[in-house]
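Blinded run. Sample ID left blank on purpose so nobody reads anything into the name before looking at the predicted structure. Input follows.
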Amino acid sequence: MEPFKNAYNPAMVADMARHLSAAGPFDAERFTRRACDGLEALELKARARHIAQALDTCLPADFAAACAQMVAALGPEAKTEGWEQSGTGEGIRGWAMLPMGEVVQRRGAGAYDLAMETLATFTSRFSSEFDVRPFLDADLTRGLTFLHRWADDPNPHLRRLASEGCRPRLPWGTRLKGLIADPTPILPLLARLRDDPSEYVRRSVANNLNDIAKDHPDLVGEIAADWLDRASKDRTRLVRHACRTLIKAGHPGALAAFCYAPPELELSFSVTPQLARMGDDLTLTARLKSRSERAQKLVVDYALYFMRANGKPAPKVFKWTRVDLPPGKELTLSKTHKLREVTTRKHYPGAHEVVIQVNGQGMGADRFTLVLNGD
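Blinded prediction complete.
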């Protein structure tokens, strides 16, 4: 797949220049020259910042005029729940919005309301979740008035922004340290959106709670139990996704919320082959035999302890399955784990342990040795 950074290219810059020139006074030649100079050598976020710097120097000096011109240059709102990566001949949208959002961040500190209103307009063409964060960090109370207003908007992109923008640990985004320390100011907002008709919005609420769970696991365990009371299928799915990190970690409150009790099992577990190379498939086999007189709800995961550069293993937990095990019955589970190169992890040779977890408890382990290609 072509790297995302390649979305920022001279053709995109030329397209931005054309639409911005049509919307008001704009030095398209100067913008194009400055934005393209050195662009090829940069990575994704650096390319967006580089274009933003060029844009900042070519837009009107007056912030209100600059916002009006950027808004006038926009393409139509996204027709689907999500955003599209590319622009259209009708105006600016997609990846080109990131530099425009950064301009609002840079200039908007003294015009809080105008900045937030402009980002609200942007978000239907490319989410403004990264750009609202400096404003929430500067004045959360003021920012929450916008978030609550957006939560009631007919536009699902705005309702999603109300949740996604205040995620404490949004990937790629500035961390909101105040909400990491105390997330209670946003809990009424999340409760307001938990039964939103859009899966796009509910998924954001789940991800926000999952962020909170990393710092306040007991709080999210309590929220899960409360929200699951007489919950619809959609809300149950939201809460399950919100608790995914807690369930993998075996958090008692989250497990209890879903009626996962400590397992009563006899278990055997094996991994084959014992000697593997990158590109091979591991086969994980688990045999579970109930020792309980009652049916058991079981969530089965596995932790793979990857070898690190310092020679010490570090676990990564993977989902496996959820099953109901009748009293006294036996069940065999099989899972294929593909040993593939990924951009987020460097693989090292040596012994690797795989631990099966049932309702958050490690109950069996086996090992394999990874041999890197060429060894």
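Unblinding after everyone has recorded impressions. The chain has a mean pLDDT of 94.
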